[in-house]
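With this grant's support, we have settled on a layout for protein records. A representative record follows, to show the layout.
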Amino acid sequence: MTAETSQTLDRGLRVLKLLADTDHGLTVTELSAKLGVNRTVVYRLLATLEQHSLVRRDLGGRARVGLGVLRLGRQVHPLVREAALPALRALAEDIGATAHLTLVDGTEALAVAVVEPTWTDYHVAYRAGFRHPLDRGAAGRAILAAREQPVSEPGYTLTHGELEAGASGAAAPLLGVTGVEGSVGVVMLSDSVPERVGPRVVDAAREVAEALR
C-alpha cells in the first residue's frame, strides 16, 4: 500500500474479487484467512458492501456477489463501445462490410458496437443490441472456440447463413482483456468470405483488445 491508496477500499475490492471467483460463496472465516485479517474486519467490510447491494449473505452465512454489481456492469458497455469504435470504423471501411464488437451476455452474444461502411452500394443492416445464441454466427462461435482452446494468438471463425440467409461472417476473439469476453467481426452479403478478411479481422480484434487494456 502507498500513501495515496486506501487500505479499507483495497480490502473491500479484494473481497469482491474473491467472491466473484467462486460459485459457492465464502464464509467470514474463509475470507478472513484469504485476506489475512481478523474476522471483525471482514464483518465490517461485508456490512458496508451489503449496504450498497454489492454483497449478499445467504441463510448459511456464506457471502456472495450481490445484484448491485450488475447495475455497475451495465455501465461498462458504453465505455467498451467507445474504445472499440476507431478499430471498427477502420475495419468496416477497409473491408466494405458491417463491423461489430460482440460481448457475452449470459448465454447469448450481444452486439454492443456496430459500424457500417460509408462507400458501399449495399451492406448488411446489423444493429447494436442484436442478440443471438453463442453457438450460431461467427461472433459467438469465435468466442466459444477461444474458450475451448485458449491461445495467445487468435485465429478466426467463418460462417455462412447461420443468422441471416445469404450473409457470411468472420470473427476473431478478444484475448487478454480482463473481465471482457467477446469478439470482433464483420458480416457481409456474399456466399463466402474473401481470403484477406479473416486476418484483417484478427488484426482488428487485437487493436480493440489493446484499447481495452
